[in-house]
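Q: Hi! First time doing this. I have a protein sequence and I read that you can turn it into a structure. Is that right? Here it is:
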Amino acid sequence: MIKRLKRFLWLAIPIIVVISISLGLIGILTAQQPSISHPLTSLTEAEISTAVSVIKREKTLSEMAAFPLIALQEPDKEEVLNFTPGKLFQRKAFLVIYERSQNKTFEGIVDLTSKTLNSWKEIPSVQPAIVASEYELATQAFKSDSRWQTAMRKRGITDFNQVKISCWAPGILSKQEEAAGNRLCRGLFYYKGNRWNYYGSPIEGILGTVNLNTGKISSFVDRRIVPFSKENWNYDLKSLGKLLSPPKVLKILQPNGKSFQIKDNEISWQGWKFRYLMHPRSGLVLYQVTHKDGENIRPVLYRASLSEMVVPYGDPEPTWSFRNAFDVGEYNLGLLANTMELSKEIPENGLLLDAVFGNEQGEPYVMPGVIGIYERDNGMLWKHYEYNTQRNDVHRSRELVMTMTAAVDNYDYSINWIFHQDGTLEVQNELTGIVLAQGTASEKQSDDNFYGRLIAKNIFGVNHQHFFNYRLDFDVDGQANSVMEMNVKALPMGEKNPLGNAIAVAETPLTKETTAVRDLDMKSSREWMIVSADKKNPLGAAPGYMLMPGGNSMFFPVEGSKIRQRAEFATHHVWVTKYKPAELYAGGDYPNQTQPGQGLPKYIADDESLTGEDLVLWYTMGVTHIPRSEDWPVMPVHQVGFKLVPRGFFSRNPAINLPE
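A: Yes, that's right. Below is the predicted 3D structure, encoded as structure tokens:
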């Protein structure tokens, strides 16, 4: 029987091989799996596995090798713009590989169709984002170190399991650390006790740094002992005790179903159409944003995403002055996305979507419910009441919101892309979570500490800022665009302005990259507009989309400061560059332990023309947070954002003819 089976298998092998080859050829000819219908479709689990297996087959990796980033290698822009359904297209994956034992970083590009390695190169002197296993590595390094143990005992802590350790990217490096070039992280320490919310009990006065290449502490300084709060700051309903009276139930119903349509990763709603992708670094990314104008489909944006963040803290004390997190590039914001719930992060009429990522071992996994999409009411869209006839015309405003939330240690963020019926696209960031607390002996606010405010007994909130940079690749009615700056001014009184009421607007073209580094100016109500360079609207003007800033701030770290040099993108509100596909991140590709001047300063160094070109506008918005007692123990949501508003793009109010 066994002999017959062997003989059958031997005879069957050529047939199986022929079938396999045939199927393989069919796969190459059709080029895609049924679910991969567009060049901008997210990587599938199978594709991530394929990419990693090709890397491991072609390169000898150590057991300590990590994959900090596995993402779609975005296809050529022209290929995407010229794509039609059924047309063959390339599928590639981009991978960052870090060899911890060698302290080397590599980038690889894998062709997923041919399963070959297209590109492999070492990127010298850079550090990729912190990966999950390094948090545990740092914890073990501290807890096994005698200096750390002594520091804890000096503070009355003998059960080291009661200490929670958080691992931060090292931020500002000393000259010795820069020269050594090792991969580092710094520890933040909290006393847990019998509480799950340990953020109210920071252990101050210690600055400890771990060499992640060796798994050992590279430097440790115990400066002073500071009391920490012993109170229970848990905020579950049982811990809070007496509760407020709840509002009555509010139901959100759409009895006829949702107004938006989803096909693969393409969404259509009220004239808008766009694609989305969940990127492991940038989070929620939009592509090919268009608006229907009559029978015409008109492009607005090719790609829009959060590019980078920086959060500088304003206390010069050495255990605090290194803290300036680049939350996107140092920690991979997309991988920190949370699973959301209906009736919580998004309303009950919403829809939750999953995302596929690869972990540091190169294994694919699905994160459920990390993207939310829903419609909401937004008050009035437009109205006029006519006194003569008592005619009242009014329309309610509906918005489509696409959102994600992410927790970066103590802070929580939501990123919201909001589509309006009047052709406006809005970005709204929401900041919440827990203030990064500083322990203090103070129980009352004093006037001698300028670096923050006492927000609870023994808890000090340090002044800090949050800066967000958005990369907006405009294609307003095509790729030939120019950028205009609009400034409003009052004219002096004179013969042409006898009553002094004249208000004039000046539109100035920004023609070169270095001259397009600009800042907000409330005195001139300054705004910027990307316009078509080769088309005119019915009134003879160039159709455009205007950047309408919301709340903002100036970057407070002073000239010459290390963080200002590392986060130069945050020192100006607007930058404009000629499109280059590799220029994606305002703070550079590798902001962790980066050198000064990376990202936008490098991108504008060649000072290219901005007239009639494919343009990218980079907008930086900031929040200055002076903590208050009402921020504790969890901050109410603070919103900051901007709008992209049509200006001369439509011939009239695009929502004027909405049916009631």
